[in-house]
Amino acid sequence: MIRLLHVAALLLLPLVGHAVEISGVNVPPLASVAGQPLVLNGAGVRRTLIFRIYLLALYVPSKTTDAREVLALPGPQRISMVLLRDVTAPQLIDALETGIADNHTAAEIETLRSRLDTLRGVMMGIRSARSGSVITLDYVPGAGTQVALDGSSAGLAIRGEDFYRALLKIWLGDDPADAALKKALLGLS
Predict the structure, then answer these.
(1) Residue-range domains of the chain with CATH
(2) Contacts of 13 (CB under 8 A, 6+ apart)
């Protein structure tokens, strides 16, 4: 049944829309995680000062413009990060950990600590990624968050829906890494 829905979603692709181009990157309107079709909720570029760091796209089961709703949506989801410059594992880890710290209490971070250490290990295994590389963070209910680099798994899934939600809060929390990117991920810009 799920496979049939996936095929149907692909057949409806021309009706749903075409890829959106942002900063020279084509962002597909649909994705699939664990056999479930997902729609592009929004996409935008993470900037720091004058640098474009990455393009981020958020795929969910159903579109919404409310960050709280995205954080509460059940089912598979995907965060797709297309690097717009070369990035080392320590740079990426530091940015992710800063984003989590900015949107969680010390007690919440402590409950995530072992899984953050696992994420650190996964990212250190990647070592570095070149401009144009794609890092995906897929949430699969019951399995956890799967990190992949250019379509290849980068380690075992990191358990817990709360862990994936913590990652989402980096961009959709009360203190997002980039307010303009938050609006773009919610389809508001």
Answers:
(1) 2-185 (3.50.70.10)
(2) 29, 30
Copy the structure tokens of residue 5: 């829905």
H-state helical runs in 26-160: 67-72, 89-102, 106-126
Q: What is the pTM of this model?
A: 0.89
Tokens of 149: 């680099």
The answer to whether the Cα torsion of 60, 66, 67, 68 is positive or negative is negative
Which helix (H) or strand (E) element contains residue 161?
Answer: helix 161-172
% of the chain exceeding 90 in pLDDT: 84
Residue 8, pLDDT above cutoff 60? no
DSSP 3-state percent helix, strand, coil across the chain (nearest 5): 40, 30, 30
At 48 the pLDDT is 87
